[in-house]
Amino acid sequence: MRGYAFNKSKIKPTEKVMSLTVTTGQMAYEWTHLLAKLKERNPVLYRKWRNAEAPEAHPIFSVCVGDIESWERH
Question: Residue 62: exposed, middle, or buried by beta-carbon count in 10 A (0-12, 13-18, 19+)?
């Protein structure tokens, strides 16, 4: 244990509904990136998911057609 005392009173519910935009290209890139990590780190889990279609985005994301983000290293 690191000795950190978590203070729950500092976390309050928010009234704002947050939405982030992500492109279809970025979603595909992230899925491929995750599968590559799984192949090295957890081959059993990789074999389970390698042929699956990319998962749906979390509801916080608004998905639009587009390429991989320009800041991404690839």
Answer: exposed
2 in the Ramachandran plot: left (φ > 0), alpha (ψ -120 to 50) or beta? alpha
pTM: 0.74
Which ranges of the chain does DSSP label H, i.e. alpha helix? 24-41, 43-49
pLDDT of 28 > 80? The answer is yes
- Give the tens place of pLDDT for each residue, 37-54: 999 999 999 999 999 998
- CA–CA distance, 48 with 13 (Å, rounded to integer): 37
Q: Is 21 exposed, middle or buried (0-12, 13-18, 19+ CB in 10 A)?
A: exposed
Instruction: Output the CA torsion 37→67→19→8 (10° steps).
Output: 20
* Measured CA angle at 51 (ends 49, 55), to 5 deg: 60
